[in-house]
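Q: Sequence in, structure out?
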Amino acid sequence: MKYVIMMCLLIFSINAEDKRPNILIALADNWAFPNASAYGDKSVKTPTFDKISQNGFVFNEAYCQVPSCSPARAVLLSGQAFCRLGSGANLHGFWPEVKNYPQLLKDAGYHIGYTYKGWGPGYFGNKPHKRLNPAGDYYKNFTEFITDKPQDKPFCFWFGSHDPHMPWNKGGEFKKGIDPATIRIPDYLPDAPVVRNEIVEYYGEIQKFDHEVSEIYAFLEKKKMLENTIFIMMGDNGWQAPRGLANLYDAGTKTCMAIQWPAKYKNGDKKIDSFIDFSDIAPTLLEAAGVQVPKEMTGKSLWPLLEGKVEGRDRLFMGRERHANVRYDNAGYPGRAIRTKKYLYIRNYFPDRWPAGDPQTWHAVGPYGDIDNSIIKSYIMLNKKNSTKKYFQICFEKRPAEELYDLSKDPDQVRNIAEDKNYKSVIEEMRGALKEEMKAVGDPRLKNPYTLKFDKEVYLGSHRR
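A: Exactly. Output:
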């Protein structure tokens, strides 16, 4: 009753001059850090992302918490750690019965909706997709959404692009002018023409995404709606190259992210070096809209950090369960991780399993199916006995129970030093930090490290993705 009265008072107080901010998230599909010109990547041009960065805040340490599409988006929408979301911690599961910020904003009088890809892939309610998505009601495009918006309501919109998701073949004219020779090849991939050329395709789709967002940005500017719109542009997880998506390395978890809100923050171009993860987004937006943040949300509002009122995190908790159904008996590859500025520590609970999926096709994708099919993947597999042997070992073969990387010496995280005696005190410290973080969010793997709870969740994906 108290909640109903509060909501009635809130809605009653809203009139045609509602000054609460509009909210817009432009979410790319598998856009990894630092592949934006705002971060100094000279091979790609992202003028819209750069503009938002210059007008507001750009994040140098933004992470998706879980390197898999559906669970990463579930964390973003729910404001909760992935390990609390049951089936929602896996790809192609059911939406967990938890509150999400679009629905809470709708209850508070917001007009909500999304275009293209919302939460997913997965199922919500008893029907797949279409107008039941936690991101809101489905619209063909942003113009249709705005046309449908009552004049006296603020809006919350989710632009879920399909770029730069594989196959990287939709860049078209946007890839023109990208020079393969300028591309930095990370240490976990071989430097070969076919690798460089496919990464050009990836960059082309990033530039296509940036262009699509520019059209929404220009529309808001023309309609005089940009000033009081919280505009967030970001990726949902890392890229789909081997050792990227579905891995707890930076290539799978670290994303591009920038926020602007001109009505409140006039002085932009501020770089945020504190760790943030997707669970922080929901409480941030709810607080800006004047909606009470549910106690079950584990994330923290970013506004105190952006205003310099609090210090940010000095470490980040991450993890993963099942990505695709690519191992015998629907098994996942569970892991947990702690990321600091100096080190990355990973705990693999079932090191006897193949991290990239079984060598033979089990159900989805193909051999080593947690790595999406691509020219790069095929090139490494075809040459694994000679020129790409090292890269096959790094990306495909089994891993030990513990991994530790010294980021000052190994930024691409390919040299595991967990057994190095010189780092004994470091790994002990990281083990302790991991236990503390797991306890704080109620991770079921703290009490039962080898639980099969997440493996037993149904996989609703098709035979091929």
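The chain has two domains: 22-314, 318-447.
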